[in-house]
Specification:
334 residues, alpha/beta, GMP Synthetase, Chain A, domain 3, 2 domains, eight-stranded mixed beta sheet, three-stranded mixed beta sheet, 34% helix, YlxH/NBP35, metal ion binding
Length: 334
């Protein structure tokens, strides 16, 4: 028959699905009782969140491990971890959304993640735009994740831990999966990746309000959102749908970022408002949130030795705008 010590050793390597830490790290195993006569092992486990689909998966894992090790039957009770344990370990989930494609949402996601890392934050980035993944190329990432034990180790670049569908597709092949398969892949990005300790986990969502965006809203009921638009009234009108979806699913809209706000001539310093004016401010007012920043049109500097075609340097004029936006986000989410 199993001993209490053996039970703890069997279970302490299981991960809390929300904190991404082992039961040993969180102190999840609160009670173990053995009834040798009945072959019964009773365990009390504390999770960051209870009453979820993730809890059911943990339950199945616990029961299977104990029965494989010789337990005839398993009794299992769940409790919730103390607030201080949950709050100090769980990252802030920040989804970057847009109503339509072509507004620079992925560029914003990448540069916000890098800016937060430059400000000393521990940052992860999920390229959740599974059909149109672009983050690895934008950040100049050439390596692939490795697998360590049962976990995928994300690739780190500019201090940001990155995972993308692009890492698992050969030769830029198109993804032709249906919605449920995409949702499963996205869930793997949360559950199967060893993120370590994070302050922020950013998600570059696909444009619009389709299956993947819905899956994110379901999987991460506490995530917050930033809506990206251009100054054009039509783009802002369409982006309002993404914002309305966040509001309806009780997700806080942290703010609006207006991209491609204007083009500034390096010769004269004059600004040309190529896509019009006012779309970002109007959208922020409609969603009752803040306009976090207005990003001009402009190309990042890069070199062959450190190629990252979409990442702005910290001293680049647009890089400075991203740093200001990142500081506003940190202040709002403290």
């Amino acid at each position: 028959m199993l001993t209490e010590k053996q039970v703890v050793e069997l279970l302490e390597t299981i991960y809390d699905p929300f904190l991404k830490k082992t039961f040993k790290e969180t102190g999840a195993i609160q009670e173990v009782k053995i009834n040798e006569e009945k072959g019964l092992v009773s365990v009390k486990i504390a999770l960051a969140k209870t009453g979820t689909a993730e809890q059911l998966q943990v339950q199945q894992t616990v029961v299977q491990r104990l029965k494989d090790a010789g337990a005839s039957s398993v009794g299992l009770r769940f409790a919730q971890l103390p607030l201080e344990e949950r709050s100090t370990n769980e990252p802030i989930y920040l989804a970057i959304a847009s109503g339509k494609g072509g507004v620079g949402k992925s560029t914003v996601s990448v540069n916000l993640a890098v800016s937060l890392a430059r400000l000393g934050k521990k940052v992860g980035l999920i390229d959740a735009d599974i059909y149109g993944f672009s983050v690895p190329d934008m950040m100049g990432i050439t390596e692939r994740p490795i697998v360590r034990g049962e976990k995928i180790i994300p690739v780190e670049r500019f201090g940001v831990k990155v995972i993308s569908m692009g890492f698992f597709v050969e030769d830029n092949s198109p993804v032709i999966w249906r919605g449920p398969m995409l949702g499963k892949m996205l869930k793997n990005f949360f559950d199967e990746v060893e993120w370590g300790e994070l302050d922020y986990l950013l998600l570059d969502l696909p444009p619009g309000t389709g299956d993947v965006a819905l899956d994110v809203h379901t999987m991460l009921p506490t995530s917050k959102e930033i809506i990206v638009t251009t100054p054009h009234p039509t783009a802002a009108f369409v982006a309002a749908r993404a914002g309305a979806m966040a509001v309806r699913t009780n997700h806080e809209v942290v703010g609006v970022i207006e991209n491609m706000s204007y083009f500034e001539s390096q010769t004269t310093g004059e600004r040309e408002y190529i896509f019009g004016k006012g779309g970002g401010q109007k959208l922020a007012e409609e969603l009752q949130t803040d306009l976090l920043g207005q990003l001009p049109l402009g190309q990042p500097d890069w070199n062959d030795d450190d190629f990252a075609p979409s990442v702005y340097g910290e001293d680049h004029p647009i890089g400075k705008v991203y740093m200001d936006i990142a500081k506003k986000i940190i202040a709002k989410l403290r």
